[in-house]
Design a protein that fits this description.
2 copies of one chain form a homodimer. Helices cover 40% and strands 16% of the residues of chain A. Chain A is built from 16 helices and 11 strands. The relative contact order of chain A is 0.19. In chain A, strands 1-2-6-3-5-4 form a 6-stranded mixed β-sheet, with helices on both faces. The first copy, chain A, is globular, with a radius of gyration of 22 Å. Chain A has 2 domains: 229 residues, Metalloenzyme, LuxS/M16 peptidase-like (Cytochrome Bc1 Complex, Chain A, domain 1); 187 residues, Cytochrome Bc1 Complex, Chain A, domain 1. At the A-B interface, helix 6, helix 7 and strand 7 of A face helix 6, helix 7 and strand 7 of B.
């Protein structure tokens, strides 16, 4: 995924994202069932009876990168409007009903998908499935609601993006990382374009894309596969598909020849921070090896303060206050591999960047230390075991995987593929994303003269936008 | 216009572009006639009987910035296919016929328009109008032609862009100057997208956009207005409009907070060159004053080696080998104001850039020298008088103006508006485009270690792509 827009409660640590929720067997896990209804709705059921709760997720294979130019924000705006009711449900009634039944619900939008979920006592699964199915088929966007909700979205943008220099900076980074691919677009939309979205735009988006054959249903928790399937048939089976699901074709990035730098100064920034982004391949169905090598590479370079390659070379030596590496291949189209850096307080940022460049060059020359690689892979395996404890995280893995073009088998295979990554694989991947120039280097700087620097936590260079 | 894609023969010097072809009267010039046919075709006739020749231009209000994402290059590809014939005209016959009659013809595509013209003996005007009208209504794209022509376009791209580091550099500059507006897109198209264009794409483009009510006919030369109108009615009058002409709405640029730098090194580059681009308003109908001030500003800063502000401060002092400023407001949407710079041979490029920054800062502090301003305005007036000698250039002014949203009156008014620009206007405009940070600075560099630098002509920072 590329910086998904998820609620904090849903944010998986990078370790959890690394590990899928399975032992290293490339077979369907015993507790997982997969089927497709006649109307094209693909469903995954994960049985987990350790607690009497259940999570329902519906993932629509449509997101901000599928928007028409000039209508940015429509995917996220429609996500908001999905809470506005149907003939049976008054505006807000779905969430109120979930809460009244002791559950919680939310939704999130990314470039590749828009998803809705409820977590609730397992005996209320029929209730939430009935409501979710109802709004898949029968959403009503009334004249009263659409303008008010647009204001809500604009206020959300004002608060989360326009008043946050780091968010504005990330937005512009993103825009120049991608020249042609719509990943260049902010998920929440450009302000002026949000302001121009209409009820007709929303209805058109819903009518075109909210269809069972463009959705994935994931049920995880205390429910048998038989019961889940029966409920899926009962609630979703009668919803007709809106035509054929079209292949998701998007403009792709051309090969780039230039190196790019971007900088922004803002008095609200406490200390300088750098992010460097290069394009990297994503996980593809039946072809996840390169993405696995990049996943291991990111962890090896920046996964741990004390033991990662860059942590040892830069943080432990005082050359950087913080350094990180990040990659997540759950993306429909090619994504980013990023490095991030916070210079030591009061130091010259250029010196810290040079030290990072030197550390990377040394790594490319010296190659992977096998003990490092084994340690990282052990951590990844451990994370997989821990992740199995969370039915919610497992539901997320399948939902996000299927929404970004993978199969259930790809999701199942991922741990094995990660385990099989060799030092050669890592170095080949490293040379591809770090060996040549290119990419975008961004610096977010305090306004000079610099304010006294605040003590601050390590930055999150790819802060997910929180939406819902 | 923004770096139009015109044949060298059509390239107007910046002085010619500055001056429209009229004396400074905001009335319809005596020799110009303007009318619209019932089917929506707008026509401008410029009578000029000094030579027995005539130019016919048809400008379609459709260009690369109107393309659908993923289909870049379709506007230019269709321009090529327009030479493929009709039921009456065999492929290539139009051009052959023009040549056989002693004339010349060509076509060009830009972001905002696609235009076709012939220059021929005035008694052959009916012949070329008949053929141009025929392909407006009856283009045939045969199964034999479309793939071969796509190869021609790919070869054109390979030659003009992919084998030219300056062109590749300009292409990427452009992509990061515009985050959201489709001016970010290369007119000729991204290579992989050209390769995927189909016959259906071309037919759809033609059927949707090649309509008399989205076109402008300009006839300039040895023809009376009455005769031109009669011929226009006779040839174009019966072509039905394809529906209502839709307003040309495009995604607009968000406000930017960052400064951006881009660099590229290539062994084929003889010496370093810099271009800096900031967004600037364009000429708008009834609102051309800011664009006039920017036009004067560009000429004042960089219009002449010996006497321009930057020429005196940088070139005459040896701080730069070449420096220029460029602006052209004939654009449908906001455009660019650019500065360009070639450092002295063998010098540190950063030093030359710093000298440019200092020269700009001094100019912003000291303001306009009134004698400079008068000299520039005199040169502009002189250029207008000279330009009147070229019926072709006058046709170009009206065609391009009307194709980018201006009225005939706006084109007529332009010389007066330029003449009325004051020192205050220039400085207000200068502060807007040069006063704050922001913008994109690009450096195109020789591969280090630098080759011995070749003696070379001043660069053309906004080299028009030649297409046709």
């Amino acid at each position: 995924m590329r910086r998904p827009t998820i609620r904090p409660a849903l944010m998986l640590s990078s370790a959890l994202v690394l590990g899928s929720a399975f032992s290293a067997l490339a077979e369907m896990p015993e507790d997982v069932t997969h089927f497709t209804l006649d109307n094209g709705l693909e469903a995954v059921v994960i049985e987990d009876d350790r607690a009497p709760v259940v999570v329902q997720m519906v993932w629509y294979k449509i997101g901000a990168a599928d928007e028409v130019p000039g209508k940015s924000g429509i995917a996220h705006y429609l996500e908001h409007l999905m809470f506005k009711g149907t003939d049976k449900l008054a505006p807000g009634e779905l969430s109120k009903t979930v809460t009244a039944n002791g559950g919680s619900d939310n939704a999130f939008t990314s470039w590749d998908y828009t998803a809705y979920f409820q977590r609730i006592a397992s005996d209320r699964l029929p209730l939430v499935m009935g409501m979710e199915a109802d709004r898949m088929a029968n959403l009503k966007i009334s004249d009263d609601d659409w303008q008010a909700e647009r204001q809500v979205v604009l206020a959300e943008r004002a608060q989360r993006i326009d008043s946050d220099p780091a968010a504005l900076f990330n937005e512009e980074m993103n825009a120049i990382v991608f020249d042609n691919h719509p990943y260049s677009r902010p998920i929440i939309g450009w302000k002026d374009e949000i302001a121009d979205l209409t009820r007709e735009d929303a209805i058109d988006w819903y009518d075109t894309h909210y269809s069972p054959n463009e959705a994935i249903l994931v049920i995880a928790g205390d429910v048998t596969p038989e019961e889940a399937r029966r409920l899926a048939e009962e609630n979703y089976g009668a919803i007709p598909a809106k035509g054929e699901a079209e292949p998701r074709m998007r403009p792709q990035e051309p090969t780039k020849q230039t190196e790019r730098r971007i900088s922004m100064t803002d008095p609200r920034v406490a200390q300088p921070r750098m992010i460097r982004s290069v394009l990297a391949p994503e996980r593809n169905a039946g072809d996840q090896e390169k993405a696995a090598a990049l996943t291991v590479l990111a962890d090896l370079l920046g996964g741990s303060t004390q033991t990662s390659v860059l942590g040892r070379k830069l943080m432990l030596t005082g050359k950087a206050l913080w350094v990180g590496a990040s990659y997540d291949g759950l993306s429909l189209d090619p994504t980013e591999f990023t490095l991030s850096l916070v210079p030591p307080q009061g130091s010259d940022p250029a010196k810290a960047e040079a030290a990072l460049d030197e550390a990377i060059a040394t790594f490319l020359k010296d190659g992977v230390d096998e003990a490092d690689l084994e340690r990282v892979k052990t951590r990844i395996r451990a994370a997989q075991v821990y992740a199995k404890d969370s039915a919610h995280a497992r539901a997320y893995d399948y939902g996000q995987g299927l929404a970004t073009g993978l199969t259930v088998e790809d999701v199942n295979d991922w741990p094995d593929i990660l385990s099989a990554v060799t030092a050669d694989d890592v170095m080949t991947a490293a040379r591809e994303v770090l060996g040549e120039g290119g990419g975008v280097t961004g610096w977010l700087m305090p306004e000079p003269p610099e304010e006294p620097m605040a003590k601050s936590a390590p930055p999150k260079p790819q802060t997910p936008e929180v939406q819902g």
